[in-house]
Amino acid sequence: MAPLLPLVTPIYFDQFVAVPGTGEAFAADETYARKIVIQAGKAGAVNAGNIYIGVATVDATAQWCIALTPGTTYEFDIPEGCIVDLNDIYVDAINAADGVRGWYYPPVTVI
Question: Which helix (H) or strand (E) holds 5?
Answer without folding.
Answer: none
